[in-house]
Amino acid sequence: NFNDSLGHNALRAVKKAADTLGVEVETFAYSGADDSLKAVENFISAGVDGILVCPASDAVLPKLADLCAANKVWIMSCFREVAEQGAIDLLAKNDWYLGTVHESEIDTAAVLAQILAKQGHTEVCMFTQAPGMVAVDQRLSSFKENAQKNGINILAEAYLDVSTAGNSAASIAPGYDLFLGSYPEATGVFMPATAAGMGEAAVASLKAHNAVGKVQFVAFDSFDGMDEAFDEGLCCGLATAHHADPFYAFMVLYNAMAGNRLTEEKVNLSLNYMVVTSAETCKELSEYVLNDKYDLYSSEEIMKFTKEGNPELTIEDIQEEMNQYTLENVVSRIKTR
Fold first, then answer.
1. DSSP state of 289
2. What is the pLDDT of residues 42-98, one digit of tens each?
3. Average pLDDT of the segment spanning 216-229
4. 71 by DSSP, 3-state: which?
C-alpha cells in the first residue's frame, strides 16, 4: 500500500535514489501471494532488470525468485526476514536472489511491552492476525513472551483481517468494541501494525469509547495523526520510521544491476526501528524524517552507496550505515546539509 504513511515514505526514498541514479521505477501494490506472482511475471515481461519485493509470505518468495532466475532478473526482498527453513534452503540455491533487509522485530516488541509496563498498564488487550507473515509473527510471539516477563496480563485478543488494506482498518473498531466493552479493567492495547488506516481507526475507536486518558496503545508502523495521538495521550509507544528499509535494499539491488554485486553471499541486513515515546519526539520525527520536504539521503549521499561513487563500498559499509539510523543522527544529517 503506497497510500499510507509507511508506503508513501518508503516509495519516496526509493524514488529519490532511482532518480539520482537514472533508474526507472514501476510499482504494484499486491493484495496476496497470487497477485505478487502475477506482478512479477508482468514486470519480467516488461523487461525490468531488477525486482524489489516485500513478500506476502516465506512460501511465495522462492517462487518469485525462481521466476526471476529463469529470466536472469535480480531480485531483492525488503521488510521481511526469511524464517522458514525450506524457503531459506531454496533461496540459497538461487543465484539471482540477492537477499533481504529486515527489522529487529523480536527486540522491538520486547521494548513495547516494557513501555506499557513502565506506564503502569498491566491489564492489556492485543490484536493478532493469521500466521504466515514473518515480521508480524515475530512481533506477536515476542510481545506475548515479554508481556509475561513484565507482569502484564493479556485479557483478550482480537483478530485483524489483513487480506486487504480496507479489511485491516475495518477490523480495528470491532476489536476495540470487544476490549473496552467487555474488559473495563483494560488500560493498554498492543497493535502489531498501524499502517493501511489501522492507526487512524484505533484513534477513532478510543475517542468513540471516551477512552482518552484511560487507555493507551503501543504499536508498530506510522500513521496520519500520530503526533496528535501522542499529544492526547492515546499512544505511548510507537516503533516506526522503518520506511528506510527498502532504500537500503534498493541500493543492494542497484549495485547488482550495475554489474557491481557487493557480495556473493545472501544479504541479510538489519535495520533499527525508531521507538517514539513522547509527543515531542514524535513531532521531531514528523518534522524531519517523515516530511516530504526532506529526503532521507541527498543525491550526493546516495552516490556513496554505489560502486561508481564509492569504489571501496562493501556490504558491511551499508550495514554500518544502517546501524547509525537513529532519530538523532538522521535529524543531524538533514540539518547540516
1. I
2. 999 999 999 999 988 889 999 999 999 999 999 999 999 998 999 999 999 999 999
3. 94
4. coil
Please tell me whether residue 19 adopts helix, strand or coil conformation.
helix
pTM of the model: 0.88
167-205 burial: b if 16+ Cβ within 10 Å, else e: ebbebbeebbebbbeeeeebbbbbbbbbbbbbbbbbbbb
Please, which pLDDT band fits residue 133 given cuts at 50, 70 and 90?
confident
CA distance 50 to 53: 10
Contact 192, 164 (CB under 8 A): no
Task: Please give the order of strands across the beta sheet that includes 267-271.
Answer: 50-53, 74-77, 97-103, 267-271
- Res 164: pLDDT: 67
Collapsing DSSP to helix, strand or coil, 186 comes out as coil
Cβ neighbors of 258 (< 8 A, separation 6 or more) are 306, 307, 308
pLDDT tens digits along 93-121: 999 999 999 999 999 999 999 999 999 99
Residue 74 is given by DSSP the state E
For residue 253, give the C-alpha cell: 539491488
98-136 in b/e form (b: 16+ CB < 10 A) is: bbbbbbbbeebbbbbbbbbbebebeebbbbbbeeebbbb
Has residue 1 got a pLDDT over 80? no
